[in-house]
Amino acid sequence: MRKYDKLQQKGTDETLTLDRRRTVVNLSSHTLSEATTAILAKGMNFAVAPKRVPKEDIIESVEASVRHLPQAEAEKIRQETVRVLNKAKPPKQNINAEEYHAIKELRDNPLLVVVQADKGNATVVLDTTDYNKRMEDILAEPIYKKLQGDPTAKQTQAEPMQAAAVACFAGGEGDRCAGPTTVRSRLVAVRSARRFRAASGSG
To answer: With a threshold of 0.70, does the pTM exceed it?
Structure first.
């Protein structure tokens, strides 16, 4: 039985390695660690369990929802929300310490860009210079033209949340932010924060 178990475990390990090679494509000049490959193999939409219950965000969302309700009904919802939050506990962590550290290393590395492949479910890692060059080549094609103004100037309801996430990461408090919960949003928020710093001249 021991020999059978070892063979079965070997087959499982080989399958996992093959799956990771299919789902994580490293086109950069950097060598990815095992933990980095493992967390990227989970996909850009993988939801990372928060280390704490985002009570402030929940309360803010509830307040925005009950704003136009009758006072008595709104107060009842507020009290129920407080009761639930007082009993709430953080969810069980679904990534290990090495994978969490890998996300931090990726988002703090300005030399790398992580994107999802156009086809399939693969995650692609590129050098930032190579990524920028590819974008410039695409924009140089004659089918594109420069806009006179910003068509997204008007804020939508989703923008304040994105702005808060960007400001949080720009301030260096990414670990204490409760906003971005997926691998994609954590990386995108920090990428936006870098643009924020560059535009404001703060680093």
So the answer is: no
